[in-house]
Structures are given as structure tokens and as C-alpha cells.
Amino acid sequence: MAVSGVSGGGQVLSLDSLVRLRRGMRTSAAPRRLPVPEGMTAPLGCDAVAVPARFGPLVLPRLPRVGCVYADDVHWWWILPSDSDYALEWPTGVRYSTGAVVMDTPRLIHRGDGTVPYTPPIPLYLALCRVMGTTPTWSKQITA
């Protein structure tokens, strides 16, 4: 089977060529879950929040308790209990990942104290709103 160009005299590509092109476009990184460090458990499940890396150092000192934090050149990732996105509209630029599934290969840069990897979601949400210049959704004025 061949596919011809749009205006008649275009290049002809076979179905095999199209499949090879598509496979070549795939990212080499497969989705994977952020690992919970040895000796820790996640009894509430795990989700994660990704923040642009430039905000990570600004958020960290604003938190009363910090769980496990992962980083790469582009993002900092915080592990949260599952369903921490319930009734929260995370600021624009923040990525919420159900199941703590990431495409990147971040490294652990902070291991929380204790046996659970979680950063409390509400303090993290408020710190992110503060450093990103966003008003928390529950503080926004309702207009009729």
C-alpha cells in the first residue's frame, strides 16, 4: 500500500515507511513510577506534583515538612498521597501526576524523615501559589 502526496506529483511512502517513521518519533523514555525509597512505605498510595525546576528551591524552605523530592533539569517532583488533587486547582505550570508516573528520569534529591514519602499537599499547594503568584482557588472571589 502506498500513500501519495497531496498535490498529485508528491513523494510516495509505503505503509512500512510510515510505521518506521512513527516508531522513530517515540520517546526513548517509557513512563514509570517514582520509586519509594527503601525502608519507606506509601500506605495512602502515591501521586506526584511536578514544578518547573526554577521554583523548586523557592518552595522547599516554605514547607513545614518535606517528603521525598525528585529532580531533573526541567522539573522538581514531590510525592503526595493519592487523590491530593481532589478539590484543588493546582497553579498553571504545575503538573499533577496520578500514580506518580513520570516520563523523565529524575533523581532523589531529598529523602523525607520517617517512613512515609509524602509532602503534605495543602502546605505544598499554598507554597506553590505563593511563589508562582497565583491566588488559591478558595480565595478567588465568586462572581455572579
Structure description:
By secondary structure, the chain is α+β, with helices and mostly antiparallel strands. The chain is built from 3 helices and 9 strands; from the N terminus they run ββαββαβββββα. It has a 5-stranded antiparallel beta sheet with strand order 7-4-6-5-9, with no helix packed on it. A two-stranded antiparallel sheet has the order 1-2. The protein has a two-stranded antiparallel ribbon with strand order 3-8. It is globular. Mean pLDDT is 85; it is low at 1-6.
Helix content: 10-25%
Give the SSE order as H and E letters.
EEHEEHEEEEEH
Mean pLDDT across the residues is 85
Q: Regarding quaternary structure, how should these chains be classified? A: single chain
Lateral arrangement of strands in the main beta sheet: 7-4-6-5-9
**Given the C-alpha coordinates, what overall shape results?**
globular
Structural class: alpha+beta
What is the radius of gyration computed over CA atoms, rounded to a whole number of angstroms?
21 Å
What amount of the residues lies in strands? Answer: 15-25%
Helical segment tally?
Answer: 3
Largest sheet: 5 strands, antiparallel
Question: Can you tag this structure with a few keywords?
Answer:
5-stranded antiparallel sheet, two-stranded antiparallel sheet, 9 strands, globular
Q: Topology, please?
A:
Elements: E1 2-3, E2 13-14, H1 15-25, E3 32-33, E4 47-52, H2 56-59, E5 69-71, E6 75-80, E7 95-97, E8 101-102, E9 107-110, H3 121-132
Antiparallel strand pairs: 1-2, 3-8, 4-6, 4-7, 5-6, 5-9
